[in-house]
Design brief:
The structure is a homotrimer.
Chain A: H1 2-9, E1 31-34, E2 37-43, H2 65-87, E3 93-104, H3 112-132, E4 135-141, E5 150-158
Parallel strand pairs in A: 3-4
Antiparallel strand pairs in A: 1-2, 2-5, 3-5
Chain lengths: ~160, ~160, ~160
């Protein structure tokens, strides 16, 4: 429970499971465990009760880079919430491997890495360099579901 | 051959190998097997003879959500066709792990999960929850090859 | 050192580590090794000294298909440079598995596979069909960091 102690010391709480907006069905697993790997579905920023976190919109348009960074950081908490429910203990994540950071961009905005850093910075602070370092892409999407500014999927190594 | 029996009972057939449009060279593997994993290239909807299935275009524009859903379902059949040719028996797929659903979107269209559900619903119906459940992202692309409405790549666990 | 001999025979050199443009922080690993896998972050075309290679811009707009193909080929060299620094010997890559080729597209451009072929052709020439063949997607992004025309991420199997 080391990771959860660190979260608590940082004053951070994990959100409830994602609540799909009305009229939307999400027939997939937030985390799929297979052997020593957990495959993490695309997550977005949530409020503590599981609803979608504001602001929605395109980074470089209605959403600033700073708000995009905050959205990526909240997305990390969403993912940690799903991992906690699936694995029981976040310490079971022994290696972050692959991260695909997708940014909902307005025309002309191309500094997407500065947005996805909100995710990487938190994961590295929580897990340290040895477990937390990950290969990453940070790219600009034409759109993301529910017009969220950031969506992130990942793959991690776990202790079985 | 349980999965193929189910496909037959549902009246579904797998398409022939993809035929690249003229002037296009596709120097990659539709399925790459390594140990107990199969990595599945981006697939699109095909007709039974392997040609690209209509309609082409952007979802939310020339292509409706319902047509996008149908394209995602046909994409599942394309993938199953490639897996059948590579593995011999679709029962060798013992776990669907990761799915990246990419939707060719018109400006303003953002309910991409409703489109990619055409893929997930069929895989879950065929494989059941234990083997079929998968982590998924469903995101909006600026464009997809040949202006297809949906492209899906995936990773599955296989029986060696 | 067979792969490096082939590179030398082809007159190709690997670039220095990527230099982030000023004002940009890239807190992630270019290559993340875990067991018999190496996860490769999104890479872009670089000059020999590690700076970003021209031209920048959107394929189908300021950048031609031929220039996009050349950018994808240079991206393969960037990835090989990162793998060389991480693994010591490029022969340790025993199987290319998954490649996500992302193309920064101008409106109306949709022959993205012809661009990403610049990557696949070089990998197949260097590694041969048995080790080099890979599952691939080649899709169109709204934007890529630094307005580069191509970004590619991948996963390979390695000899431990």
């Amino acid at each position: 429970m080391e990771i959860e102690k660190r979260l608590e010391a940082m004053g951070l709480a994990l959100p409830e499971p994602m609540q799909a907006p009305s009229g939307m069905r999400l027939p997939f697993a937030n985390v799929r465990v297979w052997g020593d790997r957990a495959y993490i579905a695309g997550h977005v920023a949530q409020n503590p009760d599981g609803t979608l976190a504001a602001p929605q919109g395109k980074v470089g348009g209605a959403v600033t880079v700073e708000q995009g960074y905050a959205s990526a950081r909240l997305t990390a908490l969403s993912i940690l919430g799903s991992l906690k429910r699936e694995l029981g203990d976040l310490d079971r994540v022994v290696g972050w491997l692959r991260v695909l950071g997708m940014v909902n961009v307005a025309p002309g905005f191309n500094t997407t890495p500065n947005v996805v850093n909100g995710f990487s910075d938190l994961i590295l602070e929580l897990y340290g360099e040895a477990a937390g370092r990950h290969a990453r892409s940070a790219v600009g999407m034409a759109v993301l579901p529910f017009e969220m500014p950031v969506e992130i999927e990942a793959e991690v190594a776990i202790r079985e």
